[in-house]
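Researcher: Go.
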Amino acid sequence: MQQYLEAGKVVTTHGVRGEMKLELWCDGVAFLKKVGRLYASAKGGKCYKIVSIRPQGQMALLQLEGVEDMDAARALRGQVFYFDRSDATLPAGRWYVADLIGCEVRDADTGKVYGVVTSVDHPGAQDIYTVKAPNGKEYMFPGVDAFLKERNPPEGYLLVTPIPGLLDDDCDSEREEE
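Model: Structure:
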């Protein structure tokens, strides 16, 4: 599992005192406040202490220690920041999206392997998982308890109870023949 996970990307400056607009790629402002620091690289690298962070629409206004004017903030435009997973705690049964990517998706009842998770998106009320089957087809399913029975990233798998027809290759081949 990756040690440093994406927090967001600086999209522009805000004001003249070094504040920046951060496009959030994590759980939000409250989460980053608890983390307390950000890194400039997926391998760690330079560490910045978060001086202040507050929401602004879907973004955050971020002030980092050592970034005290518009020029310093402008130099970080486009910078992706990372947090160290050891600085954050998740409730039991919750996982980072990065931990779910690459997990094998198996039938909870039969053990049949449907493919691997290639992305997890959050367009609305629940997460949407995209699974790539061994034959190259992609399927999407909702991350709800009725369908998703177990997430086990340390062991590399998810257990699902499929919605009839959703992950069934036979249904797809019948449609193609019609």
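Model: The chain is about 15% helix and 45% strand.
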